[in-house]
């Protein structure tokens, strides 16, 4: 049987570049090599696409902040040739191989925001995860929260500002209380997020957030347990059992997620009453559908002391590192890492087959 050629695209022009490389390594290791033929394509921080070999994938695995792409690799590009998608060497225009499906593992801007998804749709190639709209909504926390609120899904109170707007600490304090969070609107992995307790911290937090995005959120601090739930599927998605994150840092920061293996305690499954488990799963699926997601997503919640469940955010390309919750929750729900990767690829192929039947002329 002919193997399915899977292009794993990782890295990217994002502050989450290093996390993406770790995720790609785990996905590569989990692919059923009897069924799939992986092709590793790394995007460096200048936007150059390079072909990588498995042995070169992690040049500095001991510290995620030092993880780098091998820049000596061959520069490549995806192009349409004779009704199929080819990987072509930029240097000599020679075919490197065909691609049957793409597995984007590009966390953050230019990878999780609909950018590459639009390019892949133009190339007419199947790809894992949400399409353009779901990806864009999942990335922009401002648009996400406004749409969730419209659908009656509870979220934390927030204010949104763009560069040039007057941002007043007293107003934020009055509307949101103290402490509160300041974060970039279009980023993940807790990059650029600050917990603010006074005006001095507020000014520093605003400067930091604007270093990563031109739009920022000032968001209410919700006191409660941090619960996460994984979602899998297209038209009829399913939800995993929920897990709980107990940060040992002040909040679930980038360092707590990816650098310090003791930065948080991950409880899988979360110790929750059956009624709360059902509420979390139902809200996870409703959030997934409201934001037009497909394939996969991880939905993050706050569980208040009074039992109220509040949606924090949704991630359309959740982490696949060795300490990431998305695969851990599915493993605890009875779907192994290898089965999960296989199912995600099959969902991509199923959607592509369905969309290929749509009329393009009248």
Characterise the protein shown here.
This protein is an alpha+beta fold and 362 residues long. It folds into three domains: 4-127, Rossmann fold, CATH 3.40.50; 158-220, Dna Ligase, domain 1, CATH 3.30.1490; 223-351, ATP-grasp fold, B domain (D-amino Acid Aminotransferase, Chain A, domain 1). Helix content is 31%, strand content 27%. It is built from ten helices and 17 strands. The chain has helices spanning 17-30, 115-122, 132-139, 141-150, 169-176, 199-210, 254-259, 274-290, 325-332, 337-356; strands at 4-11, 36-43, 49-52, 76-81, 84-89, 95-99, 101-105, 158-162, 180-184, 194-196, 215-220, 225-233, 238-239, 243-247, 264-267, 295-303, 309-315. Strands 12, 13, 14, 15, 16 and 17 form a six-stranded antiparallel beta sheet that branches. Strand 1, helix 1 (17-30) and strand 2 form a beta-alpha-beta unit. The protein is globular, with a radius of gyration of 20 Å. The two termini are 38 Å apart. The mean pLDDT is 90.
Briefly summarize what is shown:
With 362 residues, the chain is an alpha+beta fold. The chain contains 10 helices and 17 strands.
């Amino acid at each position: 049987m002919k193997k399915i050629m899977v292009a794993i695209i990782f890295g990217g022009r994002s502050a989450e570049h290093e996390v993406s490389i770790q995720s790609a390594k785990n996905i590569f290791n989990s692919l059923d090599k009897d069924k799939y033929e992986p092709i590793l394509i790394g995007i460096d921080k200048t936007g150059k696409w390079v072909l990588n070999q498995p042995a070169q994938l992690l040049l500095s695995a001991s510290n995620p902040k030092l993880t780098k792409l091998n820049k000596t690799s061959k520069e490549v590009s995806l192009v349409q040739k004779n009704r199929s998608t080819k990987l072509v060497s930029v240097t000599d225009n020679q075919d490197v191989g065909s691609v049957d499906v793409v597995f984007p593992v590009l966390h953050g801007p230019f990878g999780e925001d609909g950018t590459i998804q639009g390019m892949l749709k133009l190339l007419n190639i199947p790809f894992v995860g949400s399409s353009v709209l779901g990806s864009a909504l999942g990335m922009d926390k401002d648009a996400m929260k406004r749409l969730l609120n419209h659908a009656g899904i509870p979220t934390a109170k927030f204010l949104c500002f763009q560069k040039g707007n007057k941002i007043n600490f007293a107003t934020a304090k009055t509307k949101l209380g103290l402490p509160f969070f300041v974060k970039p609107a279009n980023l993940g992995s807790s990059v650029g997020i600050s917990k603010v307790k006074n005006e001095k911290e507020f000014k520093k937090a605003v400067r930091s957030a604007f270093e990563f995005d031109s739009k920022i959120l000032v968001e209410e601090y919700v006191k409660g347990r941090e619960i996460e739930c994984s979602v899998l599927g297209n038209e009829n998605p399913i939800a995993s059992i929920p897990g709980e994150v107990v940060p040992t840092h002040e909040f679930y920061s980038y360092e707590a997620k990816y650098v310090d293996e003791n930065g948080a305690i991950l409880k899988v499954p979360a110790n929750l009453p059956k009624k709360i488990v059902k509420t979390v799963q139902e809200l996870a699926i409703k959030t997934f559908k409201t934001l037009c997601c497909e394939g996969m997503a991880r939905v993050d919640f706050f569980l208040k002391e009074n039992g109220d469940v509040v949606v924090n955010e949704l991630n359309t390309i959740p982490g696949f590192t060795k300490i990431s919750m998305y695969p851990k929750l599915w493993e605890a729900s009875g779907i192994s890492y290898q089965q999960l990767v296989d199912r995600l690829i099959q969902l991509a192929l199923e959607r592509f087959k369905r969309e290929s039947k749509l009329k393009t002329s009248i």
